């Protein structure tokens, strides 16, 4: 098989070929690494490539498979991971200057689980410094570019993961998400991003941005790839005080594509207010395709959303500034200009502000819970705006110049505040850039949002479109 | 007496960059506007249930 064909394939396409020995993990890993070499100059997604270890890992996987010890969907699949997820004895920089030489003595729990599943690690991927931003325009390691338009941001903070999956320099990845950092780059780069329920996946060994809002989750080419990856990383971990010991579904088994009688909730006041016209059109069309398959739409009210932006900002700013307080006292010049400003801002809220934000958060959870008594999922745009030009701190919203960071997290932040699962699935292109549709669900009900996302994915007329750089590198 | 943002930060030992002060002022005002008066939120008796679990991180 041509290496271009290999790098374009999803895990769900590759896994049966690996299992029946039509392709070898070594051949696949070499193709991915060569493609990464060819695209890096333009994309800048990788922080570090583990070529030697990856080939060794692929040989080991191949030997196991040849000997009849196939471990499952991700066995022999090459993956690069965001650089705030720890690998034992490897540098994890968080794409920062301060942690440029930090070596973890242990694997993150998610990495240990992926090792057991037979994943081949090809390297670490760039991110917005300390995950505290959404442009991935990193002052220390350079900007990551969007494979669909090299002048545009890939979104962030998991921008290296988003760009690498989209351009084919990794088959799948893990990102982290505190206000949208999995879903934002997934939408901007035209891939699938899942922020599962808070507590479903261990964060042990992942450098924190804001403890109560942080998640680590799948960024993949397809919904089934995300389901397979979640299956591996989900579960209780005694090392993470926020994980919850609830049974893990069989996600792939529950993906049928059947959405007959599914009730889709739509909240017009918040999630369809101030949205780019092109995005709104595609998202409404996406919802309509599910209605055409037998789903129903019901409008829901979620009054506390009016305070969600404030609660998200106070919580994330305060927690992030607490984590970096010591370095802000002793070496503030070692932070990039943009995140230093956010750390300064995070020193301003009072203890009362923080606690009131938590009170809002609880009531917001109750509002969502009430909404989910009437509907099975909620649908909205992942982003209200299209990816902006690299270097700009503003975005264009229907001809109006608006603040970038405030707007780009508007629809993703509530998923972090409530901890509810949320999936971004591509639903088309506007002005040549991918658009994501976000599906939120009940706590620990990832199965329903994955099935809904799968049904949507099957109807997306642009689903087989690839960036030119993937095809012509 | 009201303190400036610069004074609040300096009291915590943090030296803000001069060019950040105007942006910080604007952003802080923007956050206050988003908060509003929290009228209708009924937060006075909203129990946020911060957990204090003796014996470890998890109830087992």
From TrEMBL, chain A:
Q: What is this protein called?
A: Aspartyl/glutamyl-tRNA(Asn/Gln) amidotransferase subunit A
Gene3D superfamilies xref list: Amidase signature (AS) domain (3.90.1300.10)
Q: Which UniProt keywords apply?
A: Transferase
> Which molecular function terms from Gene Ontology are attached?
transferase activity
Methyltransferase as a keyword?
A: no
A Pfam family of the record is Amidase
Residues covered by the Amidase domain:
27-450
Please give the SUPFAM superfamilies that the UniProt record associates with this protein. Amidase signature (AS) enzymes
Q: Which InterPro entries match?
A: Amidase, Amidase_CS, Amidase_dom, AS_sf
Q: Which domain of life is it from?
A: Bacteria
Q: Which protein family is named in the record?
A: Belongs to the amidase family.
Q: Does the keyword Transferase apply?
A: yes
From TrEMBL, chain B:
Lineage top rank: taxon: Bacteria
| Name of the protein in question | Uncharacterized protein
């Amino acid at each position: 098989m041509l290496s271009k064909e290999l790098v374009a394939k999803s895990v769900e396409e590759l896994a049966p070929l690996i299992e029946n020995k039509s392709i070898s993990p070594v051949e696949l890993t070499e193709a991915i690494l060569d493609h990464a070499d060819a695209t890096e100059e333009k994309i800048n997604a990788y922080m570090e490539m583990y070529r030697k270890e990856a080939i060794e890992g692929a040989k080991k996987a191949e030997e196991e498979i040849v000997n009849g010890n196939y471990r499952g969907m991700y066995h022999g699949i090459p993956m690069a991971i965001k650089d705030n997820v720890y690998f034992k004895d490897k540098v994890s920089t968080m794409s920062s200057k301060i942690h440029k030489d930090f070596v973890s003595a242990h694997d993150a729990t998610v990495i240990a689980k992926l090792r057991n599943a037979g994943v081949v690690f090809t390297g670490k991927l760039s991110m917005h410094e300390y995950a505290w931003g959404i442009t991935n325009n990193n002052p220390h390691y350079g900007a990551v570019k969007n494979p669909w338009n090299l002048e545009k941001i890939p979104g962030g903070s998991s921008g290296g993961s988003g760009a690498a999956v989209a351009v084919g320099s990794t088959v799948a990845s893990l990102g982290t998400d505190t206000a949208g950092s999995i879903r934002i780059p997934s939408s901007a780069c035209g891939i699938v991003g899942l922020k599962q329920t808070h507590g479903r996946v261990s964060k042990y060994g992942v450098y924190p941005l804001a403890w109560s809002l942080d998640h680590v989750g799948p960024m993949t080419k397809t919904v089934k790839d995300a389901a397979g990856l979640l299956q591996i990383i989900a579960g209780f971990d005694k090392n993470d005080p926020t994980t919850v010991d609830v049974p893990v579904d069989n996600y792939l088994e529950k993906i049928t594509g059947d959405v007959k009688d599914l009730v889709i909730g739509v909240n017009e006041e918040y999630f369809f207010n101030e949205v780019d016209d092109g995005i709104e059109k595609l998202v409404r069309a996406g919802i309509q395709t599910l209605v055409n398959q037998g789903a129903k739409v019901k409008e829901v009210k979620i009054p506390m959303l009016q305070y969600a932006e404030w609660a998200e900002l106070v919580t994330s700013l305060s927690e992030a500034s607490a984590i970096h307080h010591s370095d802000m006292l002793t070496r503030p010049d070692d932070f990039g200009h943009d995140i230093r400003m956010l750390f300064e801002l995070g020193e301003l809220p009072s203890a009362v502000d923080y606690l009131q934000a938590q009170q809002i958060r609880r009531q917001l959870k109750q509002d969502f819970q009430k909404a989910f008594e009437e509907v099975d999922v909620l649908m909205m745009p992942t982003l209200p705006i299209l990816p902006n030009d690299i270097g700009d701190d503003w975005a264009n919203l229907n001809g109006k110049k608006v603040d970038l960071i405030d707007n780009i997290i508007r629809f993703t932040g509530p998923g972090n505040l409530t901890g509810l699962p949320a999936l971004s699935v591509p639903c088309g292109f506007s002005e040549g850039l991918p658009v994501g549709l976000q599906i939120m669900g009940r706590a620990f009900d990832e199965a329903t949002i994955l099935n809904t996302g799968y049904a949507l994915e099957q109807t997306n007329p642009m689903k087989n479109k690839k960036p030119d750089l993937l095809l012509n590198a | 007496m009201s303190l400036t943002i610069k004074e609040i930060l300096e009291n915590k030992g943090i030296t803000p960059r001069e060019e950040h002060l105007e942006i910080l002022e604007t952003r802080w005002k923007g956050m206050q506007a988003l908060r509003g008066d929290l009228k209708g939120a009924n937060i006075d008796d909203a129990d946020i249930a911060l957990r204090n679990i003796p014996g470890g991180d998890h109830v087992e």
